């Protein structure tokens, strides 16, 4: 199930950090390359600890990596 509310800047951050590959990022945060692919594509929302590990790799805040859309959270 796609998570349309959560977007991310992982691809841009990887390229800004020495063109880091998906595999290199996966190795640094302890997941598979397939997990990184799914997160980048917005098909998988990472756990909070994984989100923090990803942000730490790039030396940025979680908010600089992930953005959450509040669409649909307001009352009708």
Describe this structure in words.
With 76 residues, the chain is mainly α. It has one domain: Orthogonal Bundle (434 Repressor (Amino-terminal Domain)), CATH 1.10.260.40. A two-stranded antiparallel ribbon has the order 1-2. The protein is globular, with a radius of gyration of 13 Å. The model has no long low-confidence stretch (mean pLDDT 90).
Note the topology.
Blueprint: E1 6-8, H1 10-16, H2 22-29, H3 33-40, H4 48-58, H5 62-65, E2 66-68
Antiparallel strand pairs: 1-2
Helix pairs in contact: 2-3
CATH class: Mainly Alpha
In CATH, the architecture is Orthogonal Bundle
Rg result: 13 Å
Strand content: 5-15%
The spatial strand order of the largest sheet comes to 1-2
How far the N terminus sits from the C terminus, by CA atoms, comes to 24 Å
Order of helices and strands: EHHHHHE
Task: Please outline the major beta sheet.
Answer: 2 strands, antiparallel
Q: Which topology does CATH recognise?
A: 434 Repressor (Amino-terminal Domain)
The number of helical runs is: 5
Q: How many separate domains make up the residues?
A: 1
**Overall mean pLDDT score?**
90
Concise synopsis of the structure shown:
This protein is mainly α. Helices cover 50% and strands 8% of the residues. The protein is globular and about 35 Å long.
């Amino acid at each position: 199930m796609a998570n349309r509310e959560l977007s991310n800047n992982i691809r841009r951050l990887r390229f800004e950090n020495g063109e880091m590959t998906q595999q290199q990022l996966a190795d640094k945060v302890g997941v598979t390359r397939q997990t990184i692919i799914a997160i980048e594509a917005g098909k998988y929302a990472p756990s909070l600890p994984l989100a923090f590990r990803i942000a730490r790799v790039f030396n940025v805040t979680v908010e600089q990596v992930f953005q959450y859309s509040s669409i649909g959270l307001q009352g009708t």
